[in-house]
Design a protein that fits this description.
Domain 2Fe-2S ferredoxin-type (chain B): 19-113
Largest interface: A-B, 80 and 70 residues
Number of helices of chain A: 16
Cofactor (chain B): [4Fe-4S] cluster; [3Fe-4S] cluster; [2Fe-2S] cluster
Shape of chain B: elongated
Strand order of the largest sheet of chain B: 2-1-5-3-4
Strand content of chain A: 15-25%
Order of helices and strands of chain B: EEHEEEEEHHHHHHH
Structural class of chain B: alpha+beta
Strand content of chain B: 5-15%
Mean pLDDT of chain B: 93
Helix content of chain B: 25-40%
Oligomer: heterodimer
Distance between the termini of chain A: 57 Å
Catalytic activity (chain B): a menaquinone + succinate = a menaquinol + fumarate
Radius of gyration of chain A: 23 Å
Low-confidence stretches of chain A: none
CATH superfamily of the largest domain in chain B: Alpha-helical ferredoxin
EC number (chain B): 1.3.5.1
CATH architecture of the largest domain in chain B: Orthogonal Bundle
Distance between the termini of chain B: 62 Å
GO molecular function (chain B): succinate dehydrogenase (quinone) activity
Low-confidence stretches of chain B: 4-14
Number of strands of chain A: 23
Largest sheet of chain A: 8 strands, mixed
CATH topology of the largest domain in chain B: Fumarate Reductase Iron-sulfur Protein, Chain B, domain 2
Helix content of chain A: 25-40%
Structural class of chain A: alpha/beta
Number of domains of chain B: 2
Amino acid sequence: MQTHQYDVVIVGAGGAGMRAALESSKEARTAVISKLYPTRSHTGAAQGGMAAALANVEDDNWEWHTFDTVKGGDYLVDQDAAEILAKEAIESVLDLERMGLPFNRTPEGKIDQRRFGGHTRDHGQSAVRRACYAADRTGHMILQTLYQNCVKQDVEFFNEFYVLDLITDHDLTTEEIADGEEVNATGVVAYDLATGEIHVFQAKAIIFATGGAGKIFKTTSNAHTLTGDGMALAYRRGLPLEDMEFFQFHPTGLAGLGILLSEAARGEGGILRNSEGERFMERYAPTIKDLAPRDIVARSMANEVREGRGAGPNKDYVLLDLTHLEPAHIDAKLPDITEFARTYLGIEPYTEPVPVYPTAHYAMGGVPTNIKGEVLRDGVNVVKGLYAAGEVACVSVHGSNRLGTNSLLDINVFGKRSGRAAAEYAKTASFHELPEDPTVRVVEQLDEMRNRPDGERIADIRKALQDTMDLNAQVFRTGDSLNAALADIRELQKRYRNASVQDKGKLFNTDLLEAIELGFLLDIAEVTVVAAINRKESRGGHYREDFPNRDDANYMLHTMAYRRPTAASDQAEGHVEGYFDHVEEFDGYKVVLGSKPVVQTRYEPMERKY
Amino acid sequence: MTATLEAAAPSPAGEIPSFTVTLRIRRFNPEVSEEATWEDFTVEAHGTDRILDALHKIKWDEDGSLTFRRSCAHGVCGSDAMRINGRNRLACKTLLKDVNPDKPITVEPIKGLPVVKDLVVDMEPFFASYREIMPFLITSGNEPSKERYQSPEDRAKFDDTTKCILCAACTSSCPVFWTDGQYFGPAAIVNAHRFIFDSRDEGGSQRLEILNDKEGVWRCRTTFNCTEACPRGIEVTKAIQEVKRAMITRAF
């Protein structure tokens, strides 16, 4: 075992983690711990753009952007946070440009902008050019630029280190903690993949920037490594997860593969068609058609397929038509995604429409934070020294459905904010004592998994999980389908306790880490489904066929899910009889749901029409 | 409600049926033996499966100890560069049907970097070269209050080299790098090019000086291996030539 001491420890080296590191490493001794080399992070797979009302190509302002974000999230957005997001977007894009990011340019040499789903002028009048972009590899450019600046600033990285535990000075899973009582995050425990050694990082401030959990689904745009690690660790340590029932299905995944084809394809003029060649989005969103927000487009596509108008031999996908666009235009603006169609499906987008179907893309929910990035342990109180930013976090700027280009924005705005806040805090805080053996839980878990002689294969359990999530908790959900998913997850949690790995070695044991990651996935799927069962309404990315309408009277609240011991109370903070009162018991613990109010400032909830 | 392209149903990719394929994989585990060995695995594959799918099938169904890096699985993160039938490629971007699945497909770690385990190499020397060429925008004076302007023409001059994902396919395909690990290698030069030809940058002469070193651009023998290896289609050799030309024409 090795121990380290840093003022600030950042977990995750994607966009949010590195943006935070650029701030905190200027002010405080900072380490970034990442399970991947930083440039492998999934920020690099983001394509279309980053929203900011620069008004470089047409009239625009941050207030319109705020409104679109709130409406896009079906009014479950915290409006104070959305306003910060839209206001600070402008400086965030300029920051990146000054760091060297090679944006596409207007003829005058300014940052160019293009249209994207749900971004409108004057509160929904028509689509607006707000997405700043670099071809269809904006995320790649952001990731590279941030890493380049980390090299410039000599940021210290621990690459291919897996953080497997969060240490706090109170056990939030069992102790009753009074309102206002101080709870501190004191360190993390990490596993060095190359050597198999355990490292303890003691820190004054810790930032979780671990990304999403798309691998709970089978069809996903997410990387193999997006297994909800940070969310699951926080949850296991007794912290709540917020709004986990809201998962975004991106409309245009390559059919059968889930590989992302950017919404920029539609921003640049691409059209979705059904088997009859009809531009069906005209029926579902008459004003902005193919550029409606993702939840609406994904549902419309799935509905076309369900009603028998799907394309292909099995009528199970729709078509993304770019054939009316000039090949030169496609090459200039959409080079990567058209290459994906050629490489993986053998389709030539110049002349043939591309088969597409919704793909699990983004977790709107996550570890709850306030606007400084501080992690909440309930509706009000923070954990001192603990921050979260990016997809792992729920601020909430995305509400029940995130707009395209708002996630590259989120990681920059809230990465920067959390990095600054953490460094500021670390300057005045002192180190807190760690428990006598902080590694005990991790070592036990790893040894148990490694030493179990013969058990079921990890991959079989993971596949069963992903299958049931795709079947029962995807674009369309019902109480029955969700309960079926939960029954499957219970069974899989049991099977997981008897699973084993074949690689028993110390060095670069990815077999072992995949097993640990599956444990995270199961926990995240479980809480996602429990929250979805409880929310008996349809809003944003969460569509219940048995409750097809939005129900503001009863559900205009954030879901807060806690894992508690079986003996604990069935009522969590924000308990609302009949609405936010669901409890599910498992072997050895239970999931208890409460709620948190939505922050409303200037926008009254309206019907969401496009 | 999941669209499927399983082999049972004809796929839009041109109806390629299932087939069996043998992967001949270079195995190395220093905890077991100091010697690397070849091991054959035969798996069932579907029409659009990639090398990465076959590797996963082996790892998940047959031998959990098979070790390789991967993340995004669609050619943008740069984790899974490996030597496939003697050529550097990304496992997630190489379809089995395109590498003659009738014969065993050889899969080895990329060359010139120390092998850690099976297909995993130590990437540190590669990233060390990258860091040496100062891969970041260098400017002087006050930051502008808005963005720096750059014409679309100026932006186009370095577009190709911004595509690099640091997978090391180019550098580890270079015969000069194989024999001399001190050579900066194509990837570092590509990333230097990305800044040398950026109109906003003022660090060009420093980078050119670094690359004028005896382990710099002049060691390039123009074999074009790097250009052929690049999974992003970057014209690597052309970029290296442009850096050489800049060295001759720019005074520093």
